[in-house]
Amino acid sequence: MSPPTPHTAKPRRRADRPRVLTLVDVPSVQGGAEQLALNIATRLDPERFESIFSVSRWPMTPKRRERDPSWQPALAEIEAAGIRFLPLHRRYKVDPAAWMRLERFLRRERVDILHTHKFGSNVWGAIVGAAARVPIVLAHEHTWSYEGQPLRRFLDRELIARVADRFIAVSREDRRRMTDVEGIDPSRTLFIPNGVPAPPPPSGLNVREELGISPDAPVLGVVGLLRPQKAHHVLLRATKTLVERWPDLQVLIIGDGPERASIESLIAELKLERTVRITGLRRDVPDVLAAVDIAVCCSDFEGSPLSVLEYMAAELPVVATAVGGLPDLIEPGVNGLLVPRGDPAALAQALAQLLADPSTARAMGSRSVQRRMQEFDVSVIVGRLEALYSELLAEKGRIVSSA
User: Fold this and answer.
1) Distance in angstroms (rounded) separating the CA atoms of residues 158 and 160
2) Are 255 and 245 spatial neighbours (Cβ–Cβ below 8 Å)?
3) pLDDT of 259-311, one tens digit each?
């Protein structure tokens, strides 16, 4: 797919409509941060803000772009929303030509707000935004472990937090760590949780039938990239305990990533080939989640994971580790259960509690969907960001229409 609305196009600007440029590394609907950035950029009220979506890593040739199929749905969303698209064609971590391209665009188009997402874009956004004298710079951190990496902590504190008008954290725990671990002035930080749009209804595809799973078998599910942070090995070791009591238990790992070979090796080592299957990337996640009874998030660290919000939207009870922003999403005994990280025995015990009491599990799922709609729908989060934009613009002497 060719880039929608090329950056060379210059639609006539309304004087009362501030320009907001959203910057992220890649366009994608797979990574949580990338998906949220896309959701924000495409859902800003077009009567109040002019939205521009920019990606720094954009291959020059269509053939190279086609290597990542997750980009195509993202570009389709950009085109459907009718917002402008600015690819920077960054080839290296430090690529002066790409960042000069952004700096010239920010100056020429008189962008009012530069809203960056994730560490790399936050760093370069702070540098380029300051150089271009963008009135408002916002940095959005989508979590990291805050362990090790002293250079990153230094750049968060001494560069990003000093330049950005606000440093947004996606969980209360991340905001606390910005202050306590990184030493950032708390007045510079702000907590805004993630949000997801209402998912499309399941198409009616019977995923259990497709995968050969009995209608009566209990099914656990986890969706996301297969990377070390997600600690799938904890779920596998918990599953080894659970199959002794529920021999027909099935576990679906929906996703792909660098840890796939390691996960497959552990599945074989634990002799769970008949219990656990890795489905790879699937576009029909609502159909897959309709086949699941209990959703799991056993990560070592998290911010505000979109996958858990998707579980809640699918009316699923969630068993998750009590890390990062997960306690913001899961209220124990209400819409799920929380367990310590890295503890297969505790995870197995919590899952067994729900597997043994399906009616309680279903009630938790019903409360999950209500909570997501009220607190974590993407429209709620976009509304909070629009209010923040307006507040900061007013401080700079700009008035934004409330229409």
Assistant:
1) 6
2) no
3) 999 999 999 999 999 999 999 988 899 999 999 999 999 999 998 888 999 99
Question: Judging by beta carbons within 10 Å of its beta carbon (0-12, 13-18, 19+), is residue 73 exposed, middle or buried?
Answer: middle
**If you write DSSP's letter for every residue of 58-109 in order, what string do you get?**
--SSHHHHTT-TTHHHHHHHHHHHT-EEEE----SSS-HHHHHHHHHHHHHT
CA distances from 51 to 37, 41, 82 (A): 12, 6, 9
**CA-CA distances (angstroms) from residue 10 to 79, 140, 208?**
16, 27, 50
Cβ atoms of residues 41 and 21 within 8 Å: no
Greater pLDDT, 77 or 350: 350
Neighbouring residues of 209: CB distance < 8 A, sequence distance ≥ 6: none
pTM given for the model = 0.80
Contact present, 23 and 41 (Cβ < 8 Å):
no
Please list, residue by residue across 219-246, b when 16 or more beta carbons sit within 10 angstroms of its beta carbon and e when fewer do: bbbbbbbbeeebbbbbbbbbbbebbeeb
Contacts with 383 (C-beta within 8 Å, 6 or more apart), sequence order:
none
- Residue 8's pLDDT is 41
Partners of 320 in the beta sheet? 297, 338
The CA distance from 294 to 288, in Å, is 12
Name the average pLDDT for the chain: 91
Say how many C-beta atoms besides its own lie within 10 A of residue 319's C-beta: 30
pLDDT(401) > 80: no
339 backbone dihedrals φ, ψ, rounded to 5°: -135, 160
Beta-carbon neighbour count of residue 356 at 10 Å?
A: 12
Please tell me the distance from the alpha carbon of residue 309 to that of residue 329, in angstroms, as a whole number. 8
Q: What is the pLDDT of residue 223?
A: 95
For residue 273 the two structure tokens come to 């080939």
In our burial notation (b when 16+ CB lie closer than 10 A, e otherwise), range 289-318 reads bbbbbbbbbbbbbbbbbbbbbbbbbbbbbb
Among the listed residues 279, 152, 284, the one whose alpha carbon sits nearest the alpha carbon of residue 205: 284
Amino acid occupying residue 185? D
Which residues, in sequence order, are CB contacts of 144 under 8 Å at separation 6+? 119, 152, 301
Place of tokens 């976009």: 382
* Residue 274, φ and ψ in degrees, nearest 5: -85, -10
